[in-house]
Amino acid sequence: MNTYLKYLVVFYFALLTACKKDSAPEASKPSDDTYARADNASSEVDHQIYLVYQQTNVPILYTDTVSKNPLELVNLNYQMAGSNTSYIYSYPKNKSDILAGIAFVRDQIIPALGSKIKLHAISLLDTLKTEIVYNPSYIITTNYTAVPALTTFAIARVPAITTMRPDELATYKAEIFTNLLLNPLSTSGLMANFYKVSSGFYDKYSYNQADSPYYLPWKDKREYGFLLDGTETDYYFGTPSQSGDLKVYLSKILTMSVADFESINGNYPLVMNKYNLVKEALNSLGFDLTKV
Hints:
The strands form five sheets. The chain has a four-stranded mixed β-sheet. A three-stranded antiparallel β-sheet has the order 6-8-9, with no helix packed on it. A two-stranded antiparallel ribbon has the order 2-3. The chain is built from eight helices and 13 strands. Helix 2 packs parallel to helix 3 and helix 6 packs across helix 8 (269-285). The model is unreliable at 1-31 (pLDDT under 50). By secondary structure, it is an alpha+beta fold.
């Protein structure tokens, strides 16, 4: 009997100890942010990246290595559904090019971004393209200036920045900002009224002298609320998708003065309405057009 009581007491205390351990688990230590940039006084590039990170909390990458311990690599082809794109890209090799890219991002890209536009990281690239290979002698190559990926925003042609003419630099920046802004604008709900203006006219065609219910009546494309994009001819034009429409408006807003835009499009009420709606949406995001 005494033996039985002894084992019962031991079992009771063992059970009580286990319950206490279960009821008060130790908190796990937070994992380190591998994208955080540390200073490296022996590297001018890394030091400048560290200074930008301290000021803006935006990491800048110039290789595919985010961290070495633990090893983490950035892959522009990785999306939420997996590796489903085929970008071919390279990184700049010269220190002067990388430093120019860092200064460009610090002085000409980040200042225009509002508090609602968050960048996980920015990758500086030399080349960025896709290739469709039909046979060794027939390859279709498409070059890109900027691409938003899952964990970084890639900016290509960095070695060319210092040699760009002012008009080339303005176009370059507009392409970067357009690719940067498309997703936050599209997913924010801010563009609903913009899309409504031309809601019945997207993805349509119009032919001069073609009387058909399948085509839009022939008239100036801007009367439907669409900007001219250079694809129009004297006998045909097509209208864009919603995202294509927004992309053209962003490109014009980012490269043209208000006076120049109005001198070309001021007589088209639908265009001017959509123009103002885009600017209002950018202002709601906190994007500063005066710093473009």
